[in-house]
Amino acid sequence: MTSVLISPTDSDRELALGLERLGIRVIAWPETKLSEPEDSSGLDQAIQDLFGYDWLILKNERAAEYFLRRFQLLNQPAAMDDLRLLTIGESATDRLVAAQVHVDISLDRFSVGKVFAAIEAYLGSSTTISGLNFLVPNANISREAFEEELEHAGARVDSVTAYRTTPDRNKLTQIYALLIGGGIGCVTFTRPSGVGEFGQLFDSDDLSRLLRGAETACLNEHTADTASAFGLVPRMIRGGPSIPDLAASIRSLLG
Question: Is 227 within 8 Å of 234 (Cβ atoms)?
Fold first, then answer.
């Protein structure tokens, strides 16, 4: 039985009840709340061994914030002078600049798919990637495509946990398994901020890989535009404005 994934906010609770009345299993994703990991030993060890890495990739503002916070407790920014650094998103770059840390490659947000090409262009040839060591601090929920591309080119990629995106890690793991296994038929977004919260929860601005087996239902065009920016192909929820009409429209997407 496939399920519909929906926001845990009170504003979506009525829609969830409407879907359940139609016999649809509804799962609310866990609340998004950033915090330090329960165990920072992996990140601490990576920072202490920073001299052994060629590149540091900070894929969003969260990665920049939590890596810098831990790094500054253990070291000095000057220790990164010989390390090449790639950031994604203006906010991540600004955090590094404010800490007087150099940035070699700065990509716009939603450019996660361009990471490998940007590094390749910086180095001049894909063959030079082989043998390089990359450090990628993140929430360690799912892997980005660039990590696999770098490894395929012969690099070593160390993904270390630098932060958590929710206190309910067990539920997050269960939902991730359902998404990968085809147990989620549709993910519903009723507002643009819900898309951003979902991306933050799964620690990625590229949701296309995560949701490739599920429909993406959006309540309005603004929400659909936001979903598109996250790499999704949204379907508009058609029908009348009432909860039964919206629930019936979502059910039709499940086939």
Answer: yes
